[in-house]
Amino acid sequence: MIIETLSWGKLEIDEEQIYHFSKGLPGFDEETDFALIPMAETPFWVLQSVKNIGLSFLLGDPFVFYPTFEFELPDDEAEELGIGKDVVVRCIITLKEQLDQSTINLLAPVVLNPTGLSGKQIVLHKAPYHTKHSLLQEQSAIDGKDGG
């Protein structure tokens, strides 16, 4: 399948790269199909709308930037996504002109089922995370306490 992107122009992607978000992404309810495009030899991916050339998100592997990142996926969310044992978690990254100001959203990870090719951005309630964690350094405590 050929899709169009702003960054790379036309790209050929495999059907196994297309994830269905039944409810879209927050703020983009009408956009339900996205291609997950890896950026070779980096912990980054691009989530590109299949229909809207101008809609894409930079994703990162949260465990690379925050090895202690963890959350429990609610049963109803796992069931909705049809998740068995395979699950992929990515988080949306906001790049800033000054790289040290770039952030990763740990409060609302994108959860993907690579078997069923379904996905959903899930807001973690009662979690110590927020939407703008520094991308370049893990803080000693997620909640901002210095531990001392």
UniProtKB/TrEMBL annotation:
Family: Belongs to the FliW family.
Subunit and interaction comment: Interacts with translational regulator CsrA and flagellin(s).
The protein, known as: Flagellar assembly factor FliW
Keyword hit for Transferase: no
Secretion signal span: none
Source species, domain of life: Bacteria
Record's function text: Acts as an anti-CsrA protein, binds CsrA and prevents it from repressing translation of its target genes, one of which is flagellin. Binds to flagellin and participates in the assembly of the flagellum.
Pfam families: FliW
Location relative to the cell: Cytoplasm
HAMAP family, A to Z: FliW
UniProt xrefs under InterPro entries: Flagellar_assembly_factor_FliW, Flagellar_assmbl_FliW_dom_sf
Keywords annotated in UniProt: Bacterial flagellum biogenesis, Cell projection, Chaperone, Cilium, Cytoplasm, Flagellum, Translation regulation
Main location: cytoplasm
Organism: Paenibacillus borealis
Stored PANTHER family: FLAGELLAR ASSEMBLY FACTOR FLIW
